[in-house]
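Service request form, structural biology core

Requester: graduate student, group of Dr. S.
Request type: structure prediction, single chain
Budget code: on file
Notes: please return the result as structure tokens.

Sequence provided:
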Amino acid sequence: MRVAVVALGKIGLPLAVQIASKGIEVIGADVSRHVVDLVNAGSAPFPGEAHLEERLARVHGEGMLSATTDTTAAVSESDVVIVVVPLMTDVGGVPDFSAMDAATGAVAAGLRRGTLVSYETTLPVGTTRNRFAPMLEAASGLVAGEDFYLVHSPERVFSGRIFSDLGRYPKLVGGVDQRSTGEGVEFYEKILDFDDRPDLTRGNGVWAMASAESAEMAKLAETTYRDVNIALANEFAAFAEQAGIDIDEVITASNSQPFSHIHRPGVAVGGHCIPVYPRFYLSGHPGAELVETARRVNLGVPERVVETVSSHIGGLSGRRVLILGAAYRGGVKETAYSGVFDLKHAIEERGGRVVVSDPLFTGEELRNLGLEPWSGDEIDAVIVQADHAEYSELGPDDMPGAQLVFDGRGVIDTRRWEDSKVPVVVIGQGSTIA
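Core staff response, request fulfilled:
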């Protein structure tokens, strides 16, 4: 058996390594020559993924994983094709299928009879059957469910811990027909090992879904639920700040009730999941008012944070504000939908100047993102945007001139600031340290 994994990003490459570790030859395809060259040298093209470097080096050394920029050629030599190309949204929140369509066209051009095609990219409901199946059939001359097999099997992993998550969560597989589902289930059972999960209502492993649409919906349901939950926590936090209540204490107490789980509020939630996937859901269910409201609440948090900072230091005109974290979350070198950009815009609208620091990015990389790197000189205020572990070590001496630290992620160790005259505001907490 040979498997082609299309797109060797933060999800695709670890998956390719996982498959190769099972003694299955894998051809990874990516549009980036730089990524392909690094993989072919046995080196990971991005940091922060636990165990990726050593596992990639091992399967590369065993000759089980290679990479190419020629997706069609990779597909033509493979029995299974897994597509993990990111699907993003445009400025209006509408799914932008350009990259996915291009990848699907390249897959179709090399598709052989009997091949299993699995889309792991999170998709709007109905996309596998109504968009990609016709594209694959038209370009290949083959029929889905008869000449080749087509499933949706959404990735359910977290960057930084993908290998452990592959075994922790059930693998959902839904096909365009029953035979496709069966082929998909058989394949994923060969490449994955699952943790014992007595907490699940059915045994952990590969779960056959009734259809591709069911699998698509399951992923959108779990991510949209998180977005709504986070919006509720952000609403709670806004009230708690006004009432002088510590929202962390409230959430901890509330979550002690069985079956309760309230997410912690945050300055912003970025990445490919939370800001994007609810929009996929809304594209098929535009009347979902609760989901739309949750998106609006979460998108408004950076503006509220900047207003809070401005009120604490007497305005932002001519002030220098340091944003800690360009990444959308701690430990992951990724800026997709990061809150840093909305924060920067809101500060500059008030006449402030923004500088940014992130332990994962060089000054040049920050400048390429349109961000001014912080050189260590004096600033007027600090906003913690990403929960990098390094920030827990920061104290007053690290923030020269700061009149306020606004911790939007709850990562600052406030004990380090107790003897300082610098107020530390933690999102959702009504009290400050003076």
